[in-house]
Amino acid sequence: KTYNVAVLGATGAVGEALFSILEERDFPVGEVYALASERSAGKQVEFKGQTLTVRDVAGFDFSLADIGLFSAGASVSELYAPKAAAAGCVVIDNTSQFRYDDDIPLVVPEVNPAAIAQYKTRGIIANPNCSTIQMLVALKPIHDAVGIERINVCTYQAVSGTGKEAIEELAAQTAALLNGKPISPEVYPKQIAFNVLPQIDVFLANGYTKEEMKMVWETRKIMGDDRIQVNPTAVRVPVFYGHSEAVHIETREKITAERALELLRSAEGVTVLDERKPGGYPTAVTEAAGKDPVYVGRVREDISHPRGLNLWVVADNVRKGAALNSVQIAEILAKTYI
Ligand code: A2P
């Protein structure tokens, strides 16, 4: 059996990764439709050695597709996901538009695959935020073993999470500055090249940014545990691909670093790289970029807390943080439900 797939946001950073991951994993595609705005209609994208012509989503008949992989922004999903679902196309949505709706499943396949069954209610499945996905893939085995009470996390997030314009801004600023030329930030509020910005997404009333609160809300929903306390600081760094996270947890029962490493070594989707020597840890550029696993290292007991554990977690934000997670959901959907 094959499935007709529509990729909305086909010309974007995540859209491109969706095509390559569908191809790499040999997803059983029938027809594939590349959709974007009217700006890109007529452009061409490559898929499985073929050339697909990008269509304007506004005129697309979603009854042609079985599965829609949406990654064109929240307002675009707000408009088109219900239309697609009504036409019988199950939407896997990469935006934040539906993540917090009680009747829409929010899924990380390594953590809560059973939640996918709930797609039937509205025909939409939400893909979580990139930072949340990689953190929970790493924390799930520890939560199952000893329970997590509190998570203190600082992120170091790549510009590709913002999209193609941000990738271009980092490249252009870097080149300009190295050539002694002036720059004027456009995508980010301040210079991103050679700098670190403690703001991702908009500020909310409590002083946290929306990116930070996404990690709070989504962790509880995906883990199915409203007692988990999460205290994030989300930071943009001048890296193209790969988010890093310094994750500090307090567990209900004490867990040793040794036991945590043992659990992580057999956890689905995790690769441990933890050697206490120079370079004995994963990084965004050297390990994660272009790869599928969530990499974990620097696992050590917190010297300031009796039930504290520290971890360094790195993954490709465009792949596991977005496109790969969506395709994994599509695989389960195809295999089990449609
Ligand atoms: P387009 O090329 O037509 O602008 P990125 O996250 O890398 O910035 O990519 C965003 C993706 O979402 C692009 O494929 C972009 O297509 C698409 N997109 C943005 N706005 C719309 C819209 N209003 N309708 C359809 N697609 C959109």
UniProtKB/TrEMBL annotation:
Domain of life where this protein originates: Bacteria
Listed GO molecular functions?
aspartate-semialdehyde dehydrogenase activity; NAD binding; NADP binding; protein dimerization activity
* Keyword annotations of the record: Amino-acid biosynthesis, Diaminopimelate biosynthesis, Lysine biosynthesis, Methionine biosynthesis, NADP, Oxidoreductase, Threonine biosynthesis
Residues annotated as binding phosphate: 99
State the pathway, as annotated in the record.
Amino-acid biosynthesis; L-lysine biosynthesis via DAP pathway; (S)-tetrahydrodipicolinate from L-aspartate: step 2/4; Amino-acid biosynthesis; L-threonine biosynthesis; L-threonine from L-aspartate: step 2/5; Amino-acid biosynthesis; L-methionine biosynthesis via de novo pathway; L-homoserine from L-aspartate: step 2/3
Q: Which InterPro entries match?
A: Asp_semialdehyde_DH, Asp_semialdehyde_DH_beta, NAD(P)-bd_dom_sf, Semialdehyde_DH_NAD-bd, Semialdhyde_DH_dimer_dom
Q: Which Pfam families match?
A: Semialdhyde_dh, Semialdhyde_dhC
Question: EC number(s) per UniProt?
Answer: 1.2.1.11
For this entry, list what GO says about its biological process. Answer: 'de novo' L-methionine biosynthetic process; diaminopimelate biosynthetic process; isoleucine biosynthetic process; lysine biosynthetic process via diaminopimelate; threonine biosynthetic process
Its top-level enzyme class, in one word, is oxidoreductase
List, from the UniProt record, the residues annotated as the active site of this protein: 130 (acyl-thioester intermediate), 243 (proton acceptor)
Q: Which residues bind NADP(+)?
A: 11-14, 39-40, 160-161, 182, 317
Q: Which reaction does it catalyse?
A: L-aspartate 4-semialdehyde + phosphate + NADP(+) = 4-phospho-L-aspartate + NADPH + H(+)
Residues given in the record as substrate binding sites: 157, 236
Question: Domain Semialdehyde dehydrogenase NAD-binding, which positions?
Answer: 4-119
Protein family according to the UniProt entry: Belongs to the aspartate-semialdehyde dehydrogenase family.
Function, in words? Catalyzes the NADPH-dependent formation of L-aspartate-semialdehyde (L-ASA) by the reductive dephosphorylation of L-aspartyl-4-phosphate.
Q: Subunit info?
A: Homodimer.
Quote the protein name from its UniProt record: Aspartate-semialdehyde dehydrogenase
